[in-house]
Specification:
This protein is an alpha/beta fold and 264 residues long. Helix content is 46%, strand content 16%. Helix 1 links the parallel strand 2 (14-19) and strand 3 (51-56). The chain binds ligand T3D.
């Protein structure tokens, strides 16, 4: 697929998506919103991709909405009504990431601001450079948190800390994000790509169907009662028990050797 704002490569079971608008810290324009969603949907149906790295070029991860995109409307004295872009483009992107039956590792190289912060939060796992930061930038320009930040942030770090980040709109450095459980790992900048890739490679060699089901269960657990989650676990186990990878896992255990999971 040809993209103008992102790069996509797939090798060794890992799809690497790289945001590629470095001059504006990878701020989202319309093309980037749509291309990113298309990339996730292409990855969903491609058996060659069993895990994903979401990375970014330049010194920023993603600065959220490109504030120059709608300059024309503001200059014309007419503030655009922003709900529709969320409904039509940002929300489908976040849903595509959470519904993707493959794990996504965010490689957060620099500032993740506004919808760029939401994008990082929608990944399953996050590895951050020690230069990275997370910024709920919305309030700085009189907007409200969007693209899933209001959902993910309090679940990751608790209501009081989420409120602090959202109301004050001050950047949270990577080290603090690690303390609070917002990221899984912090590494020096020159080790970020290799650390994210190594983690994705490890994930790509695990039982892909079971990982997909575990992701479904985690999604459900965020917003459903225990009864529903228990039922989904039972459904998931029924599915997983019929896979090659389950048989291989048990066989390898009994034969005292490492398993070879094929993702089916
Ligand atoms: O549909 C809708 O619009 C609703 C959806 C809203 C979702 C949102 O994401 S709202 C929030 C939008 N984002 C922001 O408000 C963040 C704006 N950016 C910043 O506050 C700062 O750039 C950062 C704190 C992220 C980083 O600061 P710093 O000092 O490291 O970098 P900088 O010098 O400000 O930025 C570097 C360049 O990127 C600069 O361009 P220049 O001057 O070198 O030509 C800057 O203009 C550009 N840039 C950064 N962020 C954006 C941007 N250009 C357009 N849009 C941006 N969001």
């Amino acid at each position: 697929m040809d993209f103008s704002t992102i790069l996509l490569q797939i090798a060794d079971g890992v799809a690497i998506i790289t945001l590629n608008r470095p001059d504006v810290l990878n701020a989202f324009n319309g093309d980037m919103r749509r291309e990113l969603t298309s990339a996730f949907s292409a990855i969903e149906t491609d058996d060659a991709a069993r895990a994903v790295v979401l990375a970014a070029n330049g010194r920023g991860f993603c600065a959220g909405q490109d504030l120059r995109e709608r300059l024309g409307a503001y200059e014309g004295g007419q503030a655009p009504v922003l709900g529709e872009t969320l409904r039509q483009e940002y929300n489908p992107l976040i849903l595509a990431m959470r519904r993707l039956p493959k794990p996504i590792v965010g490689a957060i190289n620099g500032v993740a601001a506004g919808a760029g912060c939401s994008l990082a939060l929608a990944c399953d796992l996050r590895i951050a450079s020690d230069q990275a930061s997370f910024l709920q930038a919305f309030m700085r320009i009189g907007l409200v948190p969007d693209s899933g930040s209001s959902f993910f942030l309090p679940r990751l770090i608790g209501m009081a800390r989420a409120a602090e980040m959202m109301f004050l709109a001050e950047p949270m450095p990577a080290a603090r994000a690690l303390e609070l459980g917002l990221v899984n790992q912090v590494v020096p900048p020159d080790q970020l790509d290799s650390a994210a890739h190594a983690l994705a490679l490890k994930l790509a060699q695990l039982p892909t169907k079971a990982i997909a089901q575990a992701k479904r269960q985690l999604n459900l657990a965020l917003s459903s009662p225990l009864e529903a989650v228990l039922e989904e676990e039972a459904n998931g186990q029924a599915m997983a028990s019929q896979t090659h990878d389950h048989q291989e896992g048990v066989k390898a255990f009994l034969e005292k050797r490492p398993p070879t999971f094929l993702g089916r």
